[in-house]
Amino acid sequence: MNIIDRRLNPKGKSLANRQRFLRRARQQILKAVREASGERSITDIQSGERISIPMDGLREPHFRRSPHGGVRDHVVPGNREYVEGDLIPKPPMGGGGDGGSEGSPDGGGEDDFRFLLSKDEFLDIFLDDLELPDLQKKKMRQSESFTLTRAGFTVTGSPANLNLLRTMRNSLSRRIALKRPKPHEMKALEAEIRRLEETGEDPDRLSGLRVEFDRLWAKSRRVPYIDPLDVRFNRFEQVPKPVTQAVMFCLMDVSGSMTEHMKDLAKRFFMLLYLFLNRRYTHVDIVFIRHTHEAKEVDEETFFYSTETGGTVVSTALQEMRRVIAERYPPGDWNIYAAQASDGDNTSSDNGLAAALLEDVILPACQYFAYIEVGAEYKDWLGRETDLWRTYKAVARPGGNMAMRKVRVRSQIFPVFRDLFSKERADA
Amino acid sequence: MTAELLFAGADWDFDKVRRTYDAIEDIARGELGLDIYPNQIEVITAEQMLDAYSSIGLPLMYRHWSFGKRFAADEVLYRKGMRGLAYEIVINSSPCISYIMEENSMPMQTLVIAHAAFGHNHFFKNNQLFRQWTDARGILDYMEFAKGYIARCEERHGHQMVERVLDAAHALMDHGVHRYPRKRVYDLREEQQREAERAAYFEQTYNDLWRTVPRPASSFHGSRDMAERKRRLRLPEENILYFLEKNAPKLAPWQRELLRVVRNVSQYFYPQKQTKVMNEGCATCVHYHIVNRLHDKGMISDGALMEILHSHTNVVFQPEFDDPRFGGLNPYALGFGMMEEIKRIATEPTAEDRDWFPDFAGNGDPWGTLRRAWEDYRDESFILQLLSPALIRRLRLFKLHNDADAPDYVVAAIHNERGYREVRRALAATYDIAKAEPDIQIVDVDLAGDRRLILHHRVADGILLDEDEAALVLRHIANLWGYEVRLVEVDTKTEMTLREFDDVGPSVTLA
Predict the structure, then answer these.
(1) What pTM was computed for the model?
(2) Is residue B135 classed as helix, strand or coil in its secondary structure?
(3) How does residue A331 score in pLDDT terms, banded at 50, 70 and 90?
(4) Distance CA B483, CA B478 (A)
(5) ipTM for this prediction
């Protein structure tokens, strides 16, 4: 008998099967994930998901005898009062036979199929066809940071980069090709000559050997062990290093006109953006800037939950953002994203300043600037354009790195988000 | 009574498992006379157990999305706590591999080893169905080949092409087994000998009178052609996968090989489907005896025995028909009950038992009798011949007749003198796999014409096929066959056509 401990064997033996399954059910899962994300709070998305999908395309059909009709006999245990010939009325339709042995053996194949998606799988599907806009432009600007990568071999270089293996290989092949005498042959010859000199026998042979030795010696001088021709160096090339860190600025109006509902919408949008950036960059910083008539950088808790009163001056937030960028996030090293949420109010006198700041300072520094105008759930406000909307519209131009959308209810968040980052748009 | 305890407490380690295994082996070989494959016991985690579930119990399985689906479904149930995991999985191979979970306590490991490594193992090695149909030594190597082969096919022909063939083959898995041993092909010498015997017989029985019997008219030629065609294709054929593998006109060689793999897997599991009650009954009976003997010898403590019996009782629990927990007859309960009955009848028969089972009642050799039963029967025949009236009474079995057109169920037989045989016959019939699965045969294929494949479902007891599923399966058959397929449901008794499915053409080309 053998006892084998398999506990340390690699897990996930059925991972390949799972991938096949996910690929197979892709369409259904995609739909379910989209729907799930509409209903659930965004924070939950981070932690895996139980989803259920319809069985189309996932059925494994078999020839089965129908559970209905025909004549069957059942044998069941537990008879107490029945005698032969008794009649037992059938339960009304849908009661599922009394016998119990018939019926769907695998427990109802008709229902939806429920299973768990891991966090990564969920996000992969959730953010599947989204792409970051405007990467082209950033690459040019990134030229300040470089990294070295190997790029073959060269015949010149610094001794530190000498490639010993290549060099010796060349040397060896050259030595063989030019028939350089081998050291041990020379040594043997020399020993033989010395022996003959000492014993003094066979002078003819001695002189012959001496001639031979001189010839070989000359040849080994002519064919050096390592020739400058043999030497090879590792070659390195400088390639621009893609910036793998990003910073995301969340700007939000927290003046009294922003209701909890609006803040909730804004928060959802910010979270989505964060998730998305997190999957594209190795490191993502978040900066929260809230503003009334003055702006301040705060932590997340304060940003979303503490209340503040005051007027509404948007340019203060943009000023603050400029300050933070200048202090901590040089645009050459950081991909800068900004999302601003507001209900569209602004002090009229500030509109000009805000537009100028945005156009001249913020947009050139940013990869992408998204403006989300959040509205009350029931108010029909689409008719008139808010101050800020009109101001920003003048700045935003098609194909630029600024986008603006209006959001009124929770279910619009994801469509708007997709709209902003869908692949087609990135390609365009 | 003087033996030392094998272990104390719940924790297990490899040493204890080995000691316990040796003690169990003494009893199993010495007292029960079990004959087993060499054992290999593998300790796995819950996660690995889930993995093992999804690949239908084989340690090696080719890759297919349906296994991923099964894993996902099992995982949800398990993580939500809706279902526990099995304590063990045992594989019909040589060496016989038993998986035991690390979470099990030492008494549970004892139970599991006795149950799987000895009970099931003995059954696998000795039952005639397994001996005839499965190759315990070869299965793991074969699966290794199959896994590699299918992986190579995926590389060469793409995931999707392989998936299409496997999907279709899986749909026909239940119809990919040979139910009867095939005729052996004679070699040349045997063929000559046979021919000589036939000629001799013909000479012996020659009678000139036959010459005068009128021959059939030439108008029979048409049907002779058809008969000839059927003979050449060996129709009718119920092994649909086999037929398609050998005869489908459009399949590439690698696609035929895939069908063959699925067919072989299906054939490997075919005996297990037919012996669930016996297999579990055998294993349960063996572990029950062994743990009691261990306790008698003083090798396990009272506490350990209680824990084991607690599990044992859960396993053989049979709810009654009106209990909300009722889900059909529990194969463990029925199997264990029958095994214990056979033991009782062999040692302390009543007058009734002597009437019913004259051949072994009171023969004083319970384990010998059981071993013979385990060798020779499958569920259906086992119940049909060995279910005792005493057990029918104890379980209070009764037979319900259910005619879909009638408003009531009829109690057709109960546990009384008149009913025993009827209950027993009906119960055995429900374990007859030939009746539980629809009888579908390929009856004709018009090779000279439009190459349409014609299948018949031989309808028994008026139970038709599930229409939606059947339509999906037909689509799969059409894809493999490459031309149209027709399915007709024919009543077995009256030969009347009950339902015809529309002809289904292939939806994708596999080539």
Answers:
(1) 0.72
(2) coil
(3) confident
(4) 6
(5) 0.81
